[in-house]
Amino acid sequence: MLRRSAISFLLVLVGISGWARTRPHYGGTLRVEIAGDGVTSPDVTVLRLVFEGLTRTGEDGQLEPALATEWKSSNGDRRWEFKLRDGVTFHNGFPLTADRAIASLTSLCGTNCPWASVHADGSTIVFTANEPMPTLPWTLALHPIQLLDDGSGKTLPCCVGTGPYQLTDHRPPGYFLTANENYWAGRPFIDSIDLVTGRSVRDQWLDLSVGRADVVEVPPEELRLAQQQRMTVLSSPPVDLLALEISTNGALANQTLRAAIALAIDRAALFNVIFQKQGQISSSILPQSLSGYAFLFPAERDLAKSQELRGGVKPPTLSLGYQGDGSMQLAAQRIALNLHEAGFDVQVTSAPHTDLMLRSIPLASADPAAALESVLRDVAETTPLAASSPTAVYRAEHDFLDRKTLVPLLDLPRGYAIGSRVRDLNLRSDGTPDLADAWLEAAP
Prior knowledge:
The protein is of the alpha+beta class. The protein has helices at about 1-20, 45-50, 100-110, 135-140, 200-210, 225-230, 255-265, 265-275, 290, 305-310, 325-340, 370-380, 390-400; strands spanning about 30-35, 55, 65, 70-75, 80-85, 115-120, 125-130, 165-170, 175-180, 190-195, 215, 230-235, 240-245, 280, 320, 345-350, 355-360, 405-410, 415-420, 420-425, 440. Helix content is about 30%, strand content about 20%. The chain is globular and about 65 Å long.
C-alpha cells in the first residue's frame, strides 16, 4: 500500500512538472528571418505587429473588433459609424482619439479613400459616401492607424502605433521590436522580436537548423522538401494570387492582343513544374473556396486560338518582368516560352517597368467582396464595389478580367518553418504568422 501511494505521488509530480514546462509564460527573444524587407513584403511583418486597424480579420477569417468595438451602417451602406475602444494609447503614451485616427486614415489613402468624407462625433468616427460602401468594415482592417504628430504640428518619426509590439530599433539588416506593456488586449508573451530581413531562403533554413532562427519562410515550391527534411512546417490554404499584369500602352492597347497573350499561357506547366503542385490552377481572381464560382473561368491553354487572335500582327519585342527571384524568374521564363510559341517576341528582364509583369498579389481578406476590392486596388483599379452579393462580386470580377489587363494563373499557399522552442504559433486566414500570440519554451 505504501509503495502504491509513493508511485501515485511520483506520477502526480511528473504531471505537474510536464504541465509547468508546457504552460505559456513570458520572456525571450524570437528571431524571425525573411527574404523581403519586413514592410513591403506580402506579410508586412512590422506593420502587423506595430499597427492596428479599426477592425481585424481573425484566425478563422471572420471580421473582429480591434480599435473599434462596434460599427453600424445606415442609408444603404452610405454612412458608417465606428465606436472607438476606450483606454487605448499609442506606444509613446498619447491616447487614441477619433481625430488622431481620422488623420492617420486620410493620410494613408489620400485622394483614393473609399469614403467621400469622414468626421469625429465624440469617440465615434463617421464615414459617408455618395455610393454604397458595403465592404468598408473589411477594408478598414487593412488601414493601419499610426500617430502622425504630437499635437503641436511636429511630425513624428515612423512607426508609432497601438499594436502588441513597438519598434525600438531599425538597423540593417532588420528591425528590433519589444513588447507593448500597455497593450489593450494584454501584453504579449514574447519580450522581443528580432526581425532579420533580406535573407535568402537557403540561409534562413541553415540558421533554423543551427538554432540561430526560430521562424523562417518556406516558399510554396519548397513545402514538400521542407517536410521531407523533417522541419516543423505551417502552411496555409491558397492565399496569394500569381498573376500576369499586361500594360495597355503601345501595341498592347489592342485588347485582342492582350487576349491572345492570356490564352497562350500554360498554367499546368507552371503548377506542375515550377511550383511543385502546390496551391491550385486558377484563371479567376478569387479562389473557388472563397467565391464558389471560380470554375466558371476557363483555365485551359488554347494556343491555336491565341495564334488566331494575334493574326498576322507582329508586335514589337515585349519586356516581361517579375517580382521576386528563384521560382518567379523560372515562371517568367516559362511564360516567355509560351508566348514565343504563340508568335510573340518576349524578353525576360528584371527592370521595374515592363510591358508584362509577373507578380504575387495577396488576397488580404476572407470576405469575397473585400478580397476582390483589395486586389483591384492593388492593380490601380479604384472603383469600389457597389454591392457585396455573390452576383455583384462575380459580375465585377468578370467585367474586370474581360479587359485582359490582369491574367490570374495560380493560387498559392504560404509556408513557414519553426524551431523547437516556438509554441502556439498559428497562421491567420491570410497566411501570415500570428507572432503576437506565440510564446517560447524556456531552455531546460
